[in-house]
Amino acid sequence: MSRIFVIGDIHGCYDELMTLTQKVNLQEEDWLISVGDILDRGGKSKEVYEYFRNRPNSKVLIGNHERKHINNVLSYAQEIVKLQFGEVYTELLAWLSKQDYYFETPETIIVHAAFEHDQPLQQQREDVLSGSTSGEKYLEKKYTETPRWKDHYRGEKTIIYGHHVVGDTPEKHGNTIGIDTAACHGGYLTAIELPGFHIHQVKAARDYWKEEQVNWQVPVLKAKDWENMTFDMVRKQLNKLAYIEVPEVRAFLSGVEKEMMELQGMYTKIIEGIVAFVERLGEERFLEEANKYSFKAFLFKSRANNLKVEDLEKSLNTMGKVKALVREIME
Fold it and tell me: What region holds the Calcineurin-like phosphoesterase domain (predicted)?
């Protein structure tokens, strides 16, 4: 008889996942069900993904972290994973989008985060099941007096969920069991064996997320599209990251700020270059020639002696735009 193992939030803890499957002597005919959040925070999200994708009798539910990738709502943890996956990131997204939000067995309902007690399984909201921000806000409004959904659940089937860290051991509350035991933070990776609800755990080797946050700061910053951010957005990013004291990070951010200031300081010289450009076009063929250029509005304003620094500041509001115009003028 095949067994079913429901495993808590893995968050890239591949080594612990392998240790846990060895500990329970996982067989090919056994089912392995992830409650979701197989990605982010730990250092081996790609390995976890490949394992579940290639293993028969395996299922990954969509958690809030999978949903962030699917919806392109990328914070730091997701930006790291996007870099780690490289060219196969689009393949990951396609695979994630095909996964389900719940899994049902004869004795359990398995979800990532939460469950509305008064709604049939098939009519549950995806943002509630996955623990997305919108779903959690919805539950806060719905359960105002007793905010926890599990206080209201009275169903016959046990709900197994993750998402909310419950401590070092699973939390049984009514007919629900929470199994996120903070593997990526140095806690435990937990699995429940069905039938029988037997608990299996392995201790994480260390706090992986703490390490990842430091190790990926510079690569993630370098991958940001600084060239096409508005100068206001660049300044906001620099202010937001001002607290970081890591020398490599400070050096990179200082370089970004220096380049931005240098480019913004070029407006007067750019106007001089445009004036010279207009002179080279000449009066006879100005209309015909000026319309060929992307910066023709500046050319016409310059010809009318009406081009001001404010005009450039309004239009050339990214580093990429300033560089592109300088290249065109110099050609």
Answer: 3-167
In this structure, the strands spanning 58-60 and 102-104 are unpaired
Longest Cα–Cα distance in the chain: 90
User: Phi then psi for 157, rounded to 5 degrees?
Assistant: -85, 140
317 located within any domain:
yes
Residue 308, CB-side half-sphere exposure with 13 Å CA sphere: 4
Q: Please report the DSSP string for 180-221 in residue order.
A: E--GGGTSEEEEEEETTTEEEEEE-SS-HHHHHHHHTHHHHH
**Which residues, in sequence order, are bridge partners of residue 111?**
102
| Of the candidates 122, 120, 119, the residue with the CA atom closest to the CA atom of residue 100 | 122
Query: With pLDDT > 90 as the criterion, what percentage of the chain qualifies?
Result: 96
Q: Could you tell me if residue 219 is inside a domain?
A: no
Non-local (6+) Cβ contacts of 56 within 8 A are 28
Residues whose CB is less than 8 angstroms from the CB of residue 17 and which lie 6 or more positions away in sequence, other chains included: 7, 10, 48, 51, 189
Contact status, residue 184 vs residue 209, Cβ threshold 8 Å: yes
- Averaged pLDDT for residues 204-231: 96
Stated pTM of the model: 0.87
| Whether residue 230 is found in the same domain as residue 194 | no
Decide: 179 and 35 in contact? Cβ < 8 Å. Answer: yes
CA distance 112 to 179: 10
Range of the domain at 63: 4-209
The pair of structure tokens assigned to 251 is: 């050096």
Number of domains composing the chain: 2
110, burial (CB in 10 Å: exposed 0-12, middle 13-18, buried 19+): buried
Mean pLDDT (whole number) for 173-182:
98
